[in-house]
Specification:
Largest sheet: 3 strands, antiparallel
Radius of gyration: 13 Å
Number of helices: 2
Strand content: 15-25%
Helix content: 25-40%
Number of strands: 3
Structural class: alpha+beta
Strand order of the largest sheet: 1-3-2
Length: 70
């Protein structure tokens, strides 16, 4: 989201709706990539239940995160 829209619950609501729709469609999980320097985004996704994936096989220019859908 653009900075003026941040901190108002819009991103959380959108992600929760997306995650529910994916779950309803049969998806068991979701993963994403975020810039390692974007601490605010990483914290946002962590609060939604995403965990950072760590592997020597993953590129270092992005932080990969994943969560199970229930």
């Amino acid at each position: 989201l653009l900075p003026p829209a941040q901190g108002r619950g819009i991103g959380r609501k959108a992600m929760e709706m997306l995650m529910q729709q994916l779950c309803d469609a049969g998806s068991t999980g979701l993963f994403l990539a975020v810039s390692p320097v974007n601490r605010r985004a990483r914290h946002f996704y962590a609060r939604l239940g995403f965990a950072t994936l760590r592997s020597a096989d993953l590129p270092r220019h992005s932080t990969f995160m994943a969560t199970a859908l229930r």
